């Protein structure tokens, strides 16, 4: 069966000197890739990619090069009360997953247009300021004037460069990303029905696993990394993870802004505070409930969840919103705390966010994919490594 996926490949993560570095977060392979099921396009239902893993072996026990990722069942399927498993039989229809639904892609275009307009305004202002400086030089040598002149020339040069880069970026989005079929990046492999009685612990089982399109990811795949830059400064992120300056931090802000996730927090070692990245609300911080056993009314019955409260403050806002489903909730050590699946609305905001415990999600994945490897940094092994 021929894949429907076409160009382009997922974008690379760029250095923070590139004006598109935060804009492109929706189109890179960093965790939190915005997802929309092809079969649910009419509902504009959206979610996020949780974690990647290499399959290792297929269901027949043969070596497999496939790379998979998990999200929520309700993100990838309308029929949440039915089990689904892709058999790979000849002629079987694949259930495809897109990168960015219509609403998320329009948001990306609007963000790019807004930043381009801002940089055009900067360039105009810097040019006018530079013209005034050049027109009125001091009669004597003036170190402050020389420094101002040099700084303003550099500001203008950077603004003009940013305008060119952003203009090209916007054209690229319109020419190669606007067709939804060109944003197909995966198909569903396994998505059991949503349940809260799959085992005696009554955790919410809301999981869907997808097989990634190789050509989309092979070049710019970096494994399970979260891109931290853009919304908060390095100092703000450090403060959120370690609000008590007296405690020596385990967290070290990565120079490339990419925090690698590895391992899970078990039931006996819950962590506070926590963070999650992507889709509707981007990078956010929250305060985890001290107890894992938190009851909420969901899935037509009671279930037990990890509960995360909003951090508080205007800049932080809600920990989650619609579209954030299946975001990986992680701690300062880069360990998976939970997989986000729902929230408790209060007025126009989410008062509490709920997630299935990370250790439980890993149990589900390893039961179905016993050879799953979450640690790989490349999509494919080098020949020397494979040998």
UniProtKB/TrEMBL annotation:
This protein's name: (Perigord truffle) hypothetical protein
Native organism: Tuber melanosporum (strain Mel28)
């Amino acid at each position: 069966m021929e894949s429907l996926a076409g160009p382009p490949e997922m974008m690379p993560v760029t250095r923070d000197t590139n004006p598109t570095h935060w804009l492109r977060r929706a189109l890179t392979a960093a965790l939190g890739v915005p997802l929309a099921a092809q079969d649910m396009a009419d509902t504009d239902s959206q979610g996020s990619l949780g974690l990647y893993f290499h399959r290792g072996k297929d269901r027949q026990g043969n070596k497999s090069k496939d790379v998979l990722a998990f999200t929520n069942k309700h993100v990838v399927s309308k029929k949440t009360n039915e089990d689904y498993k892709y058999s790979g039989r000849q002629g079987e229809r694949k259930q495809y997953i897109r990168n960015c639904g219509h609403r998320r892609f329009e948001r990306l275009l609007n963000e790019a247009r807004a930043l381009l307009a801002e940089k055009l305004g900067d360039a105009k202002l810097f040019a006018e300021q530079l013209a005034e400086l050049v027109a009125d030089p001091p009669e004597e040598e003036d170190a402050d004037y020389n420094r101002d002149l040099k700084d303003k020339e550099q500001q203008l040069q950077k603004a003009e460069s940013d305008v060119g880069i952003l203009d090209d970026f916007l054209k690229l989005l319109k020419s190669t990303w606007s067709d939804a079929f060109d944003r197909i990046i995966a198909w569903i492999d396994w998505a059991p029905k949503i349940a809260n009685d799959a085992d005696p612990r009554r955790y919410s089982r809301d999981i869907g696993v997808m097989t990634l399109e190789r050509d989309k990811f092979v070049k710019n795949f970096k494994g399970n990394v979260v891109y931290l830059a853009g919304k908060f400064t390095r100092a703000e992120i450090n403060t959120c993870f370690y609000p008590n300056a007296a405690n020596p931090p385990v967290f070290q802000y990565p120079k490339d802004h990419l925090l690698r996730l590895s391992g899970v927090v078990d039931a006996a070692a819950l962590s506070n505070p926590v963070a999650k990245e992507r889709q509707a609300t981007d990078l956010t911080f929250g305060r985890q409930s001290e107890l894992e056993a938190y009851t909420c009314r969901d899935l037509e019955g009671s279930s037990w969840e990890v509960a995360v409260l909003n951090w508080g403050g205007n800049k932080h806002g809600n920990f989650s919103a619609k579209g954030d489903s299946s975001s990986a909730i992680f701690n300062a050590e880069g360990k998976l705390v939970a997989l986000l699946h729902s929230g408790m609305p209060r007025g126009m905001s989410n008062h509490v966010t709920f997630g299935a415990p990370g250790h439980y999600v890993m149990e589900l994945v390893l039961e179905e994919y016993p050879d799953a490897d979450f640690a790989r940094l490349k999509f494919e092994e080098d020949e020397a490594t494979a040998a």
